[in-house]
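Researcher: Re-running this chain for the archive, since the previous output was lost when a drive failed. Same request as before.
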Amino acid sequence: MTKPTRGYPRPLSEFTATSLGGVLKAQGFASMEIVTRWRDIVGAEVAAHSEPMKINWPRPKTDVGDVEQTEPATLVLRVEGPAALEIQHLSSVILERVNRFFGWHAVGRLALRQAPLRRKTPKKLPPAPDPAATARLAASMPEIEDDALRDALARLGVAIKTK
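Model: Regenerated structure tokens:
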């Protein structure tokens, strides 16, 4: 792959790693994937009421044989107040899923912080086009043989006309 000229177009993953990488590393996240893929890791039910804040990694301890012993980290989660008790009861399941994601026993315990989540409000979807207008427009295009294409073009036409 050739390098892009003047710094763009850059892949989104490279852009987010550059812009957010330092912030996430300061919070203990070696990889931002736990933040961006939280819903995939723990499931939609848990992700709807929680989000990872930071990972606290303990300092490595040196044993007698100069072998470093590392203890598992603590994952700090921001949790909506009413759901904190349920998230606490699911902590063993969450730990199992997070460690499966990492591929090793990286996180040993959860620390919950009750606070509002910082999620963005989803954009409101535009209303569906009027079915009667779509059917009339589709009927006016008999030269298009593919029914799915004709219907899609009719929906697009009605959406453009209504704006």
